[in-house]
Amino acid sequence: MAKLSFAQRFKNLFSSKKIDEEFFEDLTDALVEGDMGAKMAYELAEELEKTCKSKKITEESEIKNELKNLLLPYAKSCEFVPEKGKVNIYMMLGVNGVGKTTTCAKVARLFKQKGENVLMAASDTFRAAAEEQLELHGERLGIRVISHQHGSDPSSVVFDAAESCRAQGGGVIIADTAGRLHNKENLVRELQKIDRIASQKADSGCYKKILVIDGTTGQNALRQAEVFSESVGVDAIVVTKYDSTARGGCVFSIGKTLGLPVLFVCTGEKYENIQPFEPEKYIEEYIESEK
Fold first, then answer.
1. Other CB atoms closer than 10 Å to residue 265's CB: what's the count?
2. Average pLDDT, stretch 77-105?
3. Which helix (H) or strand (E) covers residue 174, if one does?
4. Closest to 175 measured CA to CA, from 129, 141, 131, 126
5. Contact (CB, 8 A) for 284 and 61
6. Is residue 280 within 8 Å of residue 74, measured between CB atoms?
7. Measured between alpha carbons, how far is 257 from 8 in angstroms, rounded to an integer?
8. Distance (Å, rounded) from C-alpha 80 to C-alpha 276?
9. Which of the four, 32, 39, 173, 201, has the lowest number of CB atoms within 10 Å?
10. Residue 247: pLDDT band by 50, 70, 90 thresholds?
11. CB-based contacts of 142: which residues, under 8 Å, 6+ apart?
């Protein structure tokens, strides 16, 4: 049986309980079930209980509003605007299986629609399926894909993409990368080399690292964010697979623990299923939407 969303569990609390200590204990459990993480869930419920007591709040709508206010600092949005006439590189990070390659295509399409010169770099050279998938996306979208032979140096792909982009007068490079966390040491070395090349080849201030996380994986997403932040640094995250099975609390725990903003939310497989992150809307759906 599928877990209930946090909003469903939260609503159930009001239907069967008065607003007392037990209510807030059960709220903690609901937040954990909503992928918040135990430590943050406890702290948040404790803070909400203090606020409700001090303000003498007992109504469902008021309690929900207070919770929304407590969550808002941990849900930050951001926007990356490529600089015209310069080489902008966006390195897409994430473990295998989160939808990273498809997200590369979605992001590339968005920038192409805004009139940018866009290239995609197939830097996951050890996974033939990733290269083939990216090239297929490129054909469908009319976006050039830079790729090398299977097993070649991933950083050389980014190097060549940057050289090509500069020769064309600048633009945006969306670089797909590997995500083999089961072989973490090798992966970290590989990503750090790509990171060095990308930081050298991109123009000043035009290089960003974007972590793709699966919205259905709960606190695993936080652990992944910690690994990539420690290894190469992360500037923003993209949440994929945010649908009826995603409870969404990982965004808040990542925001609280690492301070990372969210760039986009992806709600399906189609190219158009990607939207800029809207904190208030996201929080509203987390608390109110019975997905």
1. 25
2. 95
3. strand 171-176
4. 131
5. no
6. no
7. 26
8. 11
9. 39
10. confident
11. 112
Query: In the chain, pLDDT over 90 holds for what percent of residues?
Result: 71
Buried-exposed string 193-216: b where 16+ CB fall within 10 A, e elsewhere: bbbebbbebbeeebbbbbbbbbbb
Q: Identify the pLDDT of residue 246.
A: 64
Tokens of 61: 């709508």
Give the pLDDT score at 288. 85
CA atoms within 13 A on the CB side of 173: 36
- Burial label for 286, CB within 10 Å (0-12, 13-18, 19+), is buried
Taking alpha carbons only, the member of 8, 80, 37 closest to residue 286 is: 8
Phi, psi of 43 (to 5 degrees): -65, -40
Per DSSP, helices labelled H in the chain are 6-16, 21-33, 38-55, 60-71, 100-113, 128-141, 154-167, 184-201, 219-231, 250-258, 279-288
Average pLDDT (237-241) is 95
CA distances from 77 to 235, 237, 291 (A): 11, 10, 23
The average pLDDT across 161-175 equals 97
**For the whole model, what pTM was predicted?**
0.93
Q: What is the dihedral of CA 83, 154, 267, 221, to 10 degrees?
A: -110
pLDDT of residue 1 exceeding 50: no
**Token digits of residue 217:** 């994986």
Bridge partners (DSSP) of residue 239 are 213, 265
Neighbours of 9 (CB within 10 A): 19
- pLDDT range class, residue 132, cuts 50, 70, 90: very high
| DSSP letters spanning 94-140 | --TTSSHHHHHHHHHHHHHHTT--EEEEE--TT-HHHHHHHHHHHHH
